[in-house]
TrEMBL record, chain A:
Domain of life of the native organism: Bacteria
Gene3D superfamilies, alphabetized: Periplasmic binding protein-like II
Recorded family membership: Belongs to the phosphate/phosphite/phosphonate binding protein family.
Gene Ontology biological process: transmembrane transport
One Gene Ontology cellular component: ATP-binding cassette (ABC) transporter complex
Domain Solute-binding protein family 3/N-terminal: 27-262
Keyword Cell membrane: no
UniProt name for this protein: Phosphate/phosphite/phosphonate ABC transporter substrate-binding protein
InterPro entries (UniProt xref): PhnD (IPR005770), Solute-binding_3/MltF_N (IPR001638)
Pfam family, one: Phosphonate-bd
Family annotation (PANTHER family): PHOSPHONATES-BINDING PERIPLASMIC PROTEIN (PTHR35841:SF1)
Keywords: Signal
Protein's UniProt keywords contain Zinc: no
From TrEMBL, chain B:
Localization in the cell: Cell membrane
The ABC transmembrane type-1 domain, residue ranges: 70-253, 335-518
GO cellular component, one term: plasma membrane
Lineage of the species this protein comes from: Bacteria, Bacillati, Bacillota, Tissierellia, Tissierellales
Protein name: Phosphonate ABC transporter, permease protein PhnE
PANTHER family: ABC TRANSPORT SYSTEM PERMEASE PROTEIN P69, PHOSPHONATES TRANSPORT SYSTEM PERMEASE PROTEIN
Annotated GO MF terms: ABC-type phosphonate transporter activity
Keywords: Cell membrane, Membrane, Transmembrane, Transmembrane helix, Transport
Glycoprotein in keyword set: no
Sequence similarity: Belongs to the binding-protein-dependent transport system permease family.
Main localization, broad class: membrane
Top-level taxon in the UniProt lineage: Bacteria
Record NCBIfam families: PhnE
């Protein structure tokens, strides 16, 4: 008993001891959630945070996550100050905690948007969207913007009832959708542009065996989102720092090589309305419980 | 003589001081490594609670959909658990060191299976989708593999713990090795297999989250969807239903185990025993045939498609073997963090479990009501998927290993308390009594009677948790809560199999090292 209480005391002391470690200097925390349909595997955000620290004069700490939920919650509670998050995640963060988008990344063609494609096997006989009726379609997963929301909404606009007219499956990944299509498990796959080039090593015959049936509407690129209660002053600082970095040669090549971003452009909340309306078409209920 | 006693007491005191000091140092070090910060945790409380509150508001109209998916999951989990346990039985006879026909084969097989056990669900999913396409069958195969590996480990450890004397006594009456199996080993593990089955079944329902990834639907898919849409009210419903399901499984398991114990009572006459024997001969093959039919029915792919899949699976594996060693800096960094998170969670969980178990086990708890309430709380703790707890903590304390470490600590506390309190409940009453009789309090009888007696079981439970915590910590990386998970899942998405192979090698080397260490500890305690 005595020993037990001794250990208990020890643990309590330990906890309070560690708890009293000197407070760290002020830092800005940046989260990076790469888009699964992005063009670059993000290994490390450190080169970017180092440049940002220099620009801002405050230490910037960064981390990567493959799922956005943590970062969105972090933005809501102030644990994360700003983040590179996918468009759908921005809409959620905005709804939850009034987080604001300040910039959007530009792609190779200096556009702030991308789209996804419908691909079919050349020998499948599917020539138009009307032919899809009665066929098997592979979506990526129910929370994928380019692999479900936009393609699904597109099919609805083409007059196809997702529940009645087609059979669909969730493959779990753009690469897997392509694989299912090539293997003949499904007749139509919905993926980013162009999944066949990205995974050429794995599926070398993809380009010759499949063709594109059509494209969806444009989707905004990855967003730079700041937490809702950030002072205007700081918002502008971060925005200018990123724009400055993108304007220097060094910064340009870093963004290009590591993140496949070709600069930034200012963005407003309205740019992301398309995500909201699409989500509505797809009957994705974004209502947050009050 | 008195001197002797005095030195003994003095030595014991010194030992105790060193022990406590050692614990403090280890905890300090681990706390430092996972960036433990009491103030940060305290400050994050309101934010964490706000999120938790949203889950406390379950959306009951949603339960219909959850129920439908749950049935799907249960169906898959039952089939795969049965298959896994049945497959593991013969293999366990091969790999258990004390009865294996060939020590070398046993060593090699154990190493191979240990390696397989470390492979995360994500990889199985990727491989299985290549081979069998998506659908229920891939789900069943994935879960069967998990069930097989898990029950194999449990069986092996159990067989290895069979007393040498018992084996020898059977051999000494002239039994050959088959007869030893038949009369000495099998009766033990058949009894065990029921509880292993329920253990595995419960784990399978929980790990059904990976089923969503192989497109087999089930509860995992809607859980990820709700999480990704931040529908915490729906998540609350889901967890509530999951909680009730696991509670029900517990009850059925308890009931069945009791019934089995009862059914072993003597038969009224030789006649009835013979009848029982012959009926056994009929219904056991029937069950097995039925199972095979069930499995082959879900086998809905053509031969050509299977060949194509095998070829693609083969491609993935051969690329994984060509490991990309240039990736080691990323590996070391991730693996270290995963390791510290897992160790921290296991020690903290173990510490709380040993205290909570006293109040939870009904034979030690000072009060029946306390025991019941705690049992409920502990079931809730272990039903909460660690990834969701991690998100709650992430909201409070931000990025870094702390959120993951806290989430896993809570989960480990729940699981360990449940397991250890069951060990306590099944312990002999006279152990406790023999200490009580010298006039100790109930707590002292626990501390000096039951705990020392069951310590080796507790340690092996803890080490088992450590291994599974390392696997769990690879999932936490997905939301940015630290560990090797981020690198792993990103490279899987990119199909960089060479890097995936190397990362897997790192993880499994770590787990195997822990396994070895665990065996060493078990033998020396």
């Amino acid at each position: 008993m005595r020993r037990l209480s001794l250990i208990l005391l020890a643990v309590l002391m330990t906890i309070s001891l560690i708890g009293c470690t000197p407070k760290k200097e002020e830092v800005i925390t940046m989260g990076f959630v790469p888009m699964r349909d992005g063009d670059k595997l993000i290994e490390s955000v450190e080169p970017l945070t180092e440049m940002l620290s220099k620009e801002l004069g405050v230490k910037v700490e960064g981390f990567t996550a493959t799922n956005y939920v943590g970062v969105v919650e972090g933005l809501g509670s102030g644990q994360v100050d700003f983040g590179f998050i996918p468009p759908f995640a921005y809409v959620l963060a905005n709804k939850e905690s009034n987080a604001q988008v300040i910039l959007t990344a530009l792609n190779k063609d200096l556009e702030a948007k991308y789209r996804s494609q419908f691909i079919v096997r050349k020998d499948s006989g599917i020539k138009s969207f009307a032919d899809i009726k009665g066929k098997k379609v592979a979506f990526v997963d129910p929370s994928s913007t380019s692999g479900y929301l936009f393609p699904g909404a597109h099919l609805i606009k083409e007059g196809i009832d997702l529940e009645k007219d087609i059979q669909y499956v969730y493959s779990g990944g753009h690469d897997k959708s392509l694989q299912l299509l090539l293997n003949g498990d499904v007749d139509v796959a919905t993926t980013f542009v162009d999944v066949r080039d990205r995974y050429e090593k794995d599926f070398p015959d993809a380009n010759e065996k499949t063709e594109i049936l059509g494209y969806t509407e444009y989707i905004p690129n990855i967003s730079v989102t700041i937490r809702g209660n950030m002072e205007k002053d700081m918002q502008d600082k971060i925005k200018n720092a990123l724009l400055n970095i993108a304007s220097t040669d060094e910064g340009k090549s870093l963004l290009k090589d590591l993140f496949n971003m070709y600069g930034f452009t200012e963005a407003t909340d309205a740019d992301y309305d398309i995500i909201r309306t699409t989500a509505e078409t797809m009957d994705v209920d974004l209502k947050a419980a009050e | 003589m008195i001197d002797f006693l005095k030195t003994y007491i003095a030595r014991k005191k010194i030992k105790r001081i060193f022990f406590t000091l050692g614990i403090i140092i280890i905890l300090l070090y681990l706390g430092f490594k996972v960036e433990f910060d009491f103030i940060r945790l305290f400050k994050g409380m309101p934010d964490m609670f706000a999120l938790f509150e949203r889950m406390l508001n379950p959306n009951l109209s949603y339960s219909g959909e959850v129920f439908e998916k749950l049935l799907e999951t249960i169906q898959i989990a039952i089939v795969s658990s049965i298959l896994g346990v049945i497959l593991a039985l013969p293999f366990s006879l091969l790999v258990a060191e004390n009865i294996t026909p060939n020590k070398l084969v046993a060593k090699i097989l154990t190493a191979v299976f240990s390696f397989f056990r470390t492979i995360p669900g994500l990889i199985w999913a990727a491989l299985l989708v290549s081979i069998f396409s998506i659908g229920k069958f891939s789900g069943i195969v994935a879960l069967t593999i998990i069930a097989f590996l898990m029950s194999l480990k449990l069986f092996r450890e159990y067989i290895e713990s069979i007393n040498e004397n018992q084996l020898n006594s059977t051999i000494s009456v002239g039994a050959n090795s088959m007869q030893v199996l038949r009369y000495c080993v099998l009766p033990h593990i058949l009894e065990l297999s029921v509880s292993v089955f329920f253990n595995v079944f419960e784990t399978n329902i929980r790990s059904a989250t990976i089923l969503g990834l192989v497109g087999a639907g089930g509860i995992g898919q809607i859980m990820w969807r709700d999480l990704n849409h931040l529908r915490y009210d729906n998540l609350g419903t889901l967890i509530l239903i999951l909680f009730l399901t696991i509670f029900l499984i517990d009850l059925i398991s308890l009931f069945l185990r009791r019934m089995l114990k009862k059914s072993r009572i003597k038969f009224k006459s030789l006649e009835s025993y013979r009848k029982y024997k012959s009926s056994k001969l009929i219904y056991i093959p029937l069950i097995i045939i039925g199972l095979f039919v069930l499995v082959f029915k879900s086998f809905d792919i053509s031969y050509d498609r299977l060949l194509l899949g095998l070829e693609q699976g083969n491609q993935i594996i051969s690329r994984m073997i060509r490991m990309d060693f240039s990736y080691y800096s990323k590996l070391i960094e991730g693996i270290k963090e995963s390791f510290f998170i897992a160790i921290f969670a296991t020690i903290v969980g173990g510490f709380f479990a040993i205290i909570l178990s006293y109040f939870t086990a009904y034979n030690t708890s000072p009060n029946r009501a306390v025991s019941l309430i705690l049992k409920g709380i502990i079931n809730i703790l272990r039903t909460f998927p660690p990834i969701i707890t991690a998100i709650i903590f992430f909201r409070g304390v931000g990025p870094g290993p702390l959120a993951g470490a806290m989430a896993l600590s809570i989960y480990t506390t729940g699981v360990l308390t449940k397991m250890y309190s069951e060990v306590l409940e099944s312990s002999e009453k006279n152990i406790q009594d023999s200490v009580l009789v010298v006039g100790t309090t109930s707590l002292q009888s626990y501390r000096h009677g039951l705990v020392p007696h069951t310590l080796s079981t507790f340690v092996s439970l803890m080490l088992y948790r450590l291994e599974s915590n390392i696997r769990n910590s690879t999932i936490l990386g997905v939301i940015g809560a630290g560990g090797i998970g981020t690198a792993l899942s990103m490279n899987i998405t990119w199909r960089n199999w060479e890097k995936v192979g190397f990362l897997l090698l790192g993880v499994s080397l770590m787990v195997i090292a822990i396994d070895k260490f665990s065996n060493y500890l078990r033998k020396n305690i």
